[in-house]
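Illustration: Sirohydrochlorin cobaltochelatase.
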Amino acid sequence: MKKLIYLLLALTVTAFFTACKSDDEPKDSQNELTKIDKKNDTALLLVTFGSTYEAPHATFKAMVSKFKAKYPNTDVYLSFTSTTTITRWGAKTKEYFATPDKWFKAINKAGYKNVYVQSLHVIPGEEFIMLRDYYIKNFKKDMAALAEAGKPHTEKLYFGMPLLYEKEDIEAVGEALYNLYKKDVEAGTGVAFMGHGNPEDSYSYANTKYHEVENYLKNKNKNFFVATVDALDMLAGNYLIPNIKKQLPAGSSIKLAPMMSIAGDHANNDMAGDKDNKAKPEEQSWRVQLSELGYKVPVENCVLKGLADYDAILSVWMKHLDKAIKEAENILEFE
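Result:
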């Protein structure tokens, strides 16, 4: 009797998951996810976390177009590292993206001699490390295996660093942000940037990049602030609000902007979101928390544009790729 019950339960569960599986789920094939249009010997793969918001996808498309213009002898492709984002965006729009491993497989198969990979991450944190130490490392193994088997394979791999990587990056991004908000801070308005951040115990080096940008900006004007949604030491309650209260009196106007490549979920909800009556005070958006402290943060003070929407900042990513191409020590080459 027990065996019959277990069999019925197994059949029920199987039927449930079969019924719930959507016909719209992406097919794991090159044709569906990695459409190769080989016109050159070099492929350029842009790698980002991804987004389920429409505005960031317009930013992604603009980035692809600008990289195509900057590197005309390459075939440019875009990859997402977040499988959750890929699934949710695909379910909503029927447009699916592929993770880097699928692109690398398709690129190898297509016979590209050279591959440029440009990280579109802001800091050298978790997502960047995964790209470098997992996806690229495995791609190099595939290159070696194909070479050993005497099959066509990618010969050289060039890897561009994330936005905030070197001292000159801090200066370039800081100067671009200062020029964008110079009039605001000089008029007494506070400008607070929201970075993503990573767990401090594992990615403290990456999180220091936010402090470096903030220090650069504060040397220009004390009304600049940088905090994050993930790095514990830089959360709104631990870092942003105390620093704003020290610098700006209640009643001051504050602008909020993302220090992320795009203005997606965090910018729309954690930064600019409306009050959630079910959430705790510290879980409210930055706009709500600051408004309830007496600061003027109307929704129009929330700038929903990402760093990649500004050419002066996008050019920093491009400079990293230029450096990877030109300098031998930054070339990951199969020999």
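Reading the tokens back as a structure: The CA atoms of residues 240 and 246 lie 10 Å apart.
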